[in-house]
Amino acid sequence: MCSATATTPFIRLCKPFHSRVPTSLTFNSTRPTFFVRATVIKWRCPNQTLPPNSDTSFQKKALYLESIGIDSFSLIENHPMLITASLNDIKSTVEYITGMDFTAIEFRRMVGMCPEILTTKVSDIIPVFMFLHEEVRVSGSNIKHVINRRPRLIICNVDKQLRPTMYFLQSIGIKDISKHTDLLSCSVEESIKNSLEPKYNYFVVEMGRDLKEVGN
Question: What is the dihedral of CA 85, 159, 164, 153, to 10 degrees?
Answer without folding.
Answer: 30
